[in-house]
Amino acid sequence: MLTVTLGKTGITVNKNGFGCLPIQRISIAEAGKLLRTAYENGVQYFDTARAYSDSEKKIGLALSGVRSKIFLATKSMAKNGRDLRSDLEESLRLLKTDYIDVYQFHNPAFVPRPGDADGLYDEALKAQQEGKIRFIGLTNHRLPVAQEAVQSGLFATLQFPFSYLASAKDLQLVQACKAAGMGFVAMKSLSGGLITNGAAAYAFAATMDNVLPIWGMQRETELEEFLSFQEDPPVLDAHLQAVIDKDRNELTGSFCRGCGYCLPCPAGIDIPTAARMSLMLRRAPAKNYLTPERQANMKKILDCRHCNHCKNNCPYGLDTPKLLKKNYDEYLTFLK
Hints:
- The chain is of the alpha/beta class.
- Helix content is 43%, strand content 14%.
- It is built from 14 helices and ten strands.
- An eight-stranded parallel β-barrel has the order 3-4-5-6-7-8-9-10, surrounded by five helices. A two-stranded antiparallel ribbon has the order 1-2.
- Strand 8, helix 6 and strand 9 (183-187) form a beta-alpha-beta unit.
- Helix 1 (28-40) crosses helix 2.
- The longest helix is centred in the C-terminal third of the chain and has 16 residues, at 320-335.
- The protein is globular.
- The termini are far apart.
């Protein structure tokens, strides 16, 4: 079983981390079974957030009995210290614990620092001194913010989108974290579902000893696949490298990563799905995306108000309205 240590924290865990955003979409019973199966098969690191609706509650119900044997990471999108404290106390209550192993600022547009007027970092530091937080981390989708966070020396961990579609600058960020003794947690290692070869994704992550991927899972089949890699780890051989090269050729560039920060859309458009539709049509059976329901959802693109809420909130700087129009036009060609 491959393990990874999160920098200077000393937290050493199975290289299969569990990203708990998707479990908000399934029942308490289903989530409980999935989480316990993961734990019973060696998964130790569970990442969630205050913003993931009932994800924390489900984790608390399923895993509070084994709290001392797992590591919990959660996040707050608070804009000030008072609200961060409120988020932290609610997370502790729902997770049924008296401490969080890694408490993270959730995708801020800036790097929180001691002494700032918002009081964010100071409140996190106070909670750490109280023993309610072991380590302070930061998550982000913006490369400049992530780079600044590493350079600041203020954070024990960085969580950032990272898969085999990573750019050269993303790779440099991983190495910068390693040099700084900062843990690197890789979110979206399947690029929001665009990467469909789990073995290739796992093998790529395995080549970097300081990267902890947190796989977002909500189905038993998904969990079973990644658990199987623990006993028989896929190796990045010529076959899997060919898979990666093909995906890089098709997917690098200006494509939607599915982070969801463009939502909610005032026109009710499911932007993350609609903006990636042309790619998904080419990577999965097209019939799955051509149902009457899917067609109705895609047609909502025509209701775009051009308010630029999506464009202004895209951490990747995409021209989202233009991307939606392009996807809708290509979608129509599949319907013909």
